[in-house]
Fold:
Amino acid sequence: MFVAQVLIGCDGVHSVVAQWLGMSEPASSGRSAVRGLSVCPDGHGLKQELRQFLSEGLRAGMVPISDTDIYWFLVNNTVPQEKEAGTDPEKILREVTDNLGKNMPAEYLDVARHSDSGNLSWAPLLYRHPWAILTGKAARGPITVAGDAFHPMTPDMAQGGCSALEDAVVLARALSRASTPADGVAAYVSERRWRAAWMVAGAYLSGWVQQGGTNVQGVRGYMVRLFRDWIFYRFLFPRLADTMWFNCGDLVERKEQGKAHSE
Structure:
């Protein structure tokens, strides 16, 4: 019989381990995202760049990932049609091209129509409140969580997977240095709380502002868009982007032939 010394919950946004620890349930951002992969066997001819399109309560984009494949997305204020479409690729694509994204440029809609039905999804964007990450019980003895199980975030800064890799390095280092697994887990959670909370807050703010403010109308909506176009993109987003360039340190340090080597 094998008895584990450490249990790490890496079981996603609806983590059973996080629930067992007593962490709060993920919250809705009020937005949902359609994600698709379009395949053009003869080549798409697009430049290797991310293109983004904005309209009232809607944000869409596309970026080539090879000479034949294009990743595209559409972020919308959550609508009832999402439940009706479910996981049916045809209904999802029809909702994008005939309704939600009908005013998008023709080139974007053409990319969407070339979608591979096996890689098309529509799901709500969830996150854990930053204060819940700072104050929640993310560890109990040698049991903890990592990645989306710890700090689910909206994809607006594309740091979900990257932050999970950071967790892995910090956790492994903490466990290697601690006298007991429980001490290592506690050190890991302490080190990761503030950065994780900051990344979640930054991603949420980035998405909310870029989309013009969820369900914000009138003068307030106009002010949000003014802030987005003249202040956020020019001054704030570059600072948020700087947080992506994070050095979580060496995994382990060893001495060999009188010299220290980092791995």
